[in-house]
Amino acid sequence: MSWLSRVRNGIPFLPKRQTADNLWHKCKKCEAMVFTKEWEDNLFCCPRCEHHDRIGSKARFEQMFDNGRYEVLPSPEVREDPLKFRDTKRYTDRIKTARTTTGARDALTNAKGLINRRKAVVGVQDFAFMGGSMGIAVGAAFVAGVRVAIANKCPYVLFTAAGGARMQEGILSLMQMPKATVALAELREAGLPYIVVLTDPTTGGVTASYAMLGDVQIAEPDALIGFAGQRVIEQTIREKLPEGFQRAEYLLEHGMIDMVVRRHDLKDTVGKLIEYLTPAKGRGKKAA
After folding, report:
1. Residue 38 sits in which domain range?
2. pLDDT (tens digit, 9 = 90+) per residue, 153-193?
3. Which of 20, 55, 98, 160 is most exposed, with minimal Cβ within 10 Å?
4. Exposed, middle or buried by CB within 10 Å (0-12, 13-18, 19+), for 110?
5. Based on the structure, what is the number of domains in the chain?
6. Assign residue 146 a region: left if phi > 0, alpha if psi is -120 to 50, beta otherwise?
């Protein structure tokens, strides 16, 4: 056997199935290549530049609830295609595809559990589900989450991520804005806090309604937050917008939000807010 064969045979090559794309993750911001395991262990944040990637409801619930234990709340049944909408494909087909891809019923999923030993209901919008768009199902899920929080005498914590209202439902999607506002009035009447965590991106009708109505407004670093797109605004006012416009840090500097919190610190920050804002009777039993 030649020396070249001996060297080649001594190299510990990984099996082909382990060297696929899922072994590495390319950061969308700095374009660094990092091990997927390292990226996941870092709460889906780039270990090089701290870019916070978008995550779904399952990962968010596991990060927020004590010991990763929680109970997913059932999604309300709604009429799924009230306008019989069709563009390049049927709306019902788009919903089926989104459900297959994400495993969620719709863009907003609620769960209840303990955050730092305090009861809480947490809602998460998943951008992977049709851009996290707000339709009838999202509005119904929001109201359901608020009412479960009222029944359990605990706060409602919402993680927003959306491109706005769902165009396939027309005016019916926009009607979810006042519907959510009325639900929040019920929550405040019960003396319970509403905490919003704005994640990348939170835009359109969601920003114009329940995303900006929190008692405390938190944002993840560098999250895009706004109503209309930057290009639309520039074309309307015919001026160049400042650097970082509509990013979390810019909004914090101009008083639109209360704090920008790294994902690693979110659980403790939200837990402290719940402790400050919730009556003592809202304390849950110590998680096992």
Report:
1. 16-51
2. 999 999 999 999 999 999 999 999 999 999 999 999 999 99
3. 20
4. buried
5. 2
6. alpha
Please report, for the domain that includes residue 221, its CATH number. Answer: 3.90.226.10
Which has the higher per-residue pLDDT, 281 or 114? 114
Count of helix runs (H) and strand runs (E) in the chain: 11, 9
| Whether residue 39 is found in the same domain as residue 114 | no
- Confidence (pTM): 0.88
Residue 38 shares a structural domain with residue 166: no
Q: Residue 63 and residue 68: Cα distance in Å, rounded?
A: 6
Integer angstrom CA distances of residue 21 from 16, 28, 125, 209: 11, 15, 26, 39
- Residue 150 shares a structural domain with residue 265: yes
Name 269's Cβ contacts closer than 8 Å, sequence gap at least 6. Answer: 218, 259, 261
Please say whether the beta carbons of 73 and 105 come within 8 A.
no
Query: Quick one: which of 230, 226, 186, 222 has its CA closest to 207?
Result: 226
Q: Are residues 172 and 151 in the same domain?
A: yes
**259 & 237 share domain:** yes
In whole angstroms, what is the distance from residue 236 CA to residue 100 CA?
39
Asked if 154 and 118 count as a contact pair (C-beta separation under 8 A), the reply is: yes
CA 229 vs. chain centroid, Å, equals: 19
Q: Taking the CA atoms of the chain, what radius of gyration do you get in angstroms?
A: 21
